[in-house]
Amino acid sequence: MDEVTGEVMGEVMVKAEQVWKSFGQLEVLKGIDLEVRNGEVVCVIGPSGSGKSTFLRCLNHLEKINAGRLWVNGQLMGYRQRGDKLHELREKEVAAQRRDIGMVFQRFNLFPHMTALENVVEAPIRVKRQAKASAMERGRELLTRVGLGDRCDSYPSQLSGGQQQRVAIARALAMEPKLMLFDEPTSALDPELVGEVLGVMRELALDGMTMVVVTHEMGFAREVADRVVFMDGGVVVEEGPPSQVIGDPKHERTRAFLSRVLRPED
Amino acid sequence: MTEKQGNRPGLIRAVPVRHPGRWVAAAVIVVLAAMLVNNIVTNTAYNWAEQWKYFLSPPVLNGVRNTIWLTLVAMVGGVLFGIVLALMRLSPNPLMRGASWLYLWVFRGTPLYTQLLIWGNIGALFPKLGLGIPFGPEFVTAQTNALYSAAMAAALGLVLNEAAYMAEIIRAGILSVDPGQNEASQALGMTRMQTMRRVVLPQAMRVIVPPTGNEAISMLKNTSLVAAVPYLELTFTAQTIYASTYQVIPMLVMVCIWYLILSSLMMVGQYYLERHYARGSQQSRMGLRARMSRIGGAP
Ligand SMILES: Nc1ncnc2c1ncn2[C@@H]1O[C@H](COP(=O)(O)OP(=O)(O)O)[C@@H](O)[C@H]1O
Ligand SMILES: [Mg+2]
């Protein structure tokens, strides 16, 4: 039952046990084991196609895993265990689990027909049934916190990529998540806009948010991550503190990857 | 900056390209227009006085009202049922998909006029309507023709046909929305229904509204086919009038003028609707002229 694991986990936010995932014949995740503790920032690095996005999407059950178990915040994601049988959760129950998990996408995925503020308050009002006035007030606060207090009424198409991504972060934070997932949040940005988004993420980390960040920004991983996970070919090859995984990698595959992505300033 | 600035060269005054084709076309059009005006003014068969006599007469106004009512009911019903059919076609359930596909196959594969004839004569197929258990006892029964008026037959026929076309328009609209939108709202904990209503459909509207406006204008004209039922809309009204006055052309021209007035009003409505659903997109900053030419409202 869920409660048993919840008790055992205590301060563990994410626990993945032998997570396997395939799309048809293509095996993408081949037994991922990972733990993220409360307040920890974990950066996931690895070559393109290694399954990083897929793993993040499994964490909030946007993808169904084929084998293994995945707990977030003490809850088994997507299923209820009775004896040794798993029962699929109903759509509403899955939606309820996702409320506690914020997600930020590479391509922002803001709602283009809504203003920045409307984007931020949509889920609090519709999903959490918050009163409109208080949700708006909180939404303004959040947009101010990401440096966009003066852009509440702008539509996404009127904002730069960096501003859109900061709105997307505010939108996720509006649900007061216990865990934030970032899937290459700066990869679609012009280089001069990367810093403003990383700055917001850095502050979020300092505030104690639990974060799993897929990124190619090695400087950010070094400075902010408590732990770095290197994935390749659907498995975790190496994990540890950034100074070790980025500074002094043990595995040949990690070294080969880093030599391709590290820039002199990292 | 300033020290690099040289003397400004003389402005370009080039000889523009000549367009002799335009002048030829203009001459042809002017001649044709003059012939038409001459015909309208001198040909007594138009009988403008007769047209004006009937233009605002009670039977014609009744026909106009029925045409507007039918167009409205057929479009609203067609859109609502079309949404259901579109969602069925996009459903993961193969039975739903198959049923929707079969419906579209039948209603798009047969002529509307024939369908309307069938709905007008449905009493012959089902003489009695009843409420009960399928293949079991019936609790209430009534004569079909007592429950079912010509207006209902006309509306039903148009709704069922329009739904098949709207389903495809709506499906294309839903598919045009970036799948990332779905993921973003699901990740926020929204249900599939909430996602559809709040996120996907409003964006799909941008793709759905322009062809739907065209459908509505077609519908305005297709209502003339319910003479098959028969039902007294604008065209059938004109036919009943000229059956006794023998003023065929004046009545038909008068009806055309009415259709033009109504379709022009609909184009204006379409413009504002499109503008509403273009919120937040590049198109919302496009000029009026460009938009009108897209919906065929202005050259
Ligand atoms: N929905 C999907 N259907 C089929 N294949 C997919 C799907 N999503 C991802 N893949 C495949 O899974 C592999 C891993 O993808 P992804 O998790 O996006 O890698 P990464 O984020 O590390 O670049 C890729 O080969 C990709 O083509
Ligand atoms: Mg990826």
Automatic annotation (TrEMBL), chain A:
One of its GO terms (molecular function) is ATP binding. It comes from the Bacteria. Gene3D superfamilies: P-loop containing nucleotide triphosphate hydrolases. Residues 14-258 form the ABC transporter domain. PROSITE patterns: ABC_TRANSPORTER_1 (PS00211), ABC_TRANSPORTER_2 (PS50893). Keywords: ATP-binding, Nucleotide-binding, Transport. This is ABC-type polar-amino-acid transporter. The lineage of its organism: Bacteria, Bacillati, Actinomycetota, Actinomycetes, Streptosporangiales.
Automatic annotation (TrEMBL), chain B:
GO terms for molecular function: transmembrane transporter activity. InterPro entries: AA_ABC_transptr_permease_3TM (IPR010065), ArtM/GltK/GlnP/TcyL/YhdX-like (IPR043429), MetI-like (IPR000515), MetI-like_sf (IPR035906). Gene3D superfamilies: MetI-like. It is found in: Cell membrane. It is a multi-pass membrane protein. Its main location: membrane. One of its GO terms (cellular component) is ATP-binding cassette (ABC) transporter complex. Keywords: Amino-acid transport, Cell membrane, Membrane, Transmembrane, Transmembrane helix, Transport. One of its GO terms (biological process) is amino acid transport. Pfam families: BPD_transp_1. Residues 64-267 form the ABC transmembrane type-1 domain. The keyword Transmembrane applies. The chain crosses the membrane at residues 21-48, 68-90, 102-126, 146-165, 225-242, 248-273. The keyword DNA-binding does not apply. It comes from the Bacteria. Belongs to the binding-protein-dependent transport system permease family. This is Polar amino acid transport system permease protein. It comes from Nonomuraea pusilla.
